[in-house]
Amino acid sequence: MPWVLSGLGLVILLLAGDALVKGAVNLALRLGIPALIVSLTIVAFGTSAPELLISIKAIHDGAPGLALGNVVGSNTANILLVLGIPALLATMHTSQCDTRKSYNFMIAASLLFIGLAFRGVFDWLAGLVLLGALAYVLFDQLRDAREHRRCGADGPEEPEGADPSMPSWQIGIFLVLGLIGLPVGAGLLVDNATLIAQAYGVSDTVIGLTMVAIGTSLPELATTVMAALRRQADVVLGSVIGSNMFNLLAIIGIASLVGPISVDPEFLKFDLWVMLGASLLLIPFVFLKKDITRNWGVMLSALYALYLVLVLV
Fold first, then answer.
1. Average pLDDT taken over every residue of the chain
2. Would the pLDDT of 36 be above 60?
3. Which end of the chain is flanked by fewer CB atoms within 10 Å, N or C?
């Protein structure tokens, strides 16, 4: 039964997160907030709402390892799994996408995160440092986007989830469904994932690194697979980089203000370095303009399978 309820909680989380994004985006646009600001903030926060609620619920329930495992495991899965599996289906032409600046920010965020982890706990001070770094990144992205507009470069006019024709009552329904569904889904997933960990004699950290991390990466995986099949995967690399950076700075930054997140020594010995190593594997695609071919897909997917074996054994 815990497996079924965990799956149900995950489905509710993902659907509620999508509903919240649609409702919040259209409400913000209706209130006159510029689309650019909405794209950089509301969409980014909304799509990460499931991971954030999971982390907050885990901290309240005394399972901080699940919160930290979810973020670290999701970042590893985003690179090895979300980029690896679609590449098995079709070559991803990431060489056409300039992600150098975002990638440098992601590596800096990863090093900052690892450095703070060696303090042994993510407390309110670490949270403020991470959120300060996030504010700098968002400000820099906003400045760059405005510069592109000033130079006449084309850019998306409407953020993800925008629908100018959406009636007010529908916006309200989406917001209510999102705000109710997120805590309900997070509660089901965290409570039953903890029961599974106890039943199988593994730590909540391992459950966070594996089952919960893969589950919360499924939307990105589905999107990437469809983009690969449609030969539209040139922007996927940028999305993965942005998601990973946001996970490190925003989710743990906010969650650590709710309560301290103790760092399992195993993270310092293994998992954080796997996350960083996976991030460094992107160098050929970011700086050398290599496409993610099927051979790369095989290697990335195999590395993730090996990582799961090492974590679970």
1. 83
2. no
3. C
Helix (H), strand (E), coil (C) string for the chain: CHHHHHHHHHHHHHHHHHHHHHHHHHHHHHCCCCHHHHHHCHHHHHHCHHHHHHHHHHHHCCCHHHHHHHHHHHHHHHHHCCCHHHHHHCCECHHHCCCHHHHHHHHHHHHHHHHHHCCCEECHHHHHHHHHHHHHHHHHHHHHHHHHHHCCCCCCCCCCCCCCCCCHHHHHHHHHHHHHHHHHHHHHHHHHHHHHHHHHCCCHHHHHHHHHHHHHHHHHHHHHHHHHHCCCHHHHHHHHHHHHHHHHHHHHHHHHHHCCEECCHHHHHHHHHHHHHHHHCCHHHHCCCCCECHHHHHHHHHHHHHHHHHHHC
Mean pLDDT of 188-212: 82
What is the pLDDT confidence band of residue 116, given thresholds at 50, 70 and 90? very high
Is 185 within a domain? Answer: no
| Residue 136 in domain | yes
- Across 49-58, 160-169, 224-233, which has the greatest mean pLDDT? 49-58
Total-model pTM: 0.81
* Domain residue limits at 299: 47-56+64-156+202-312
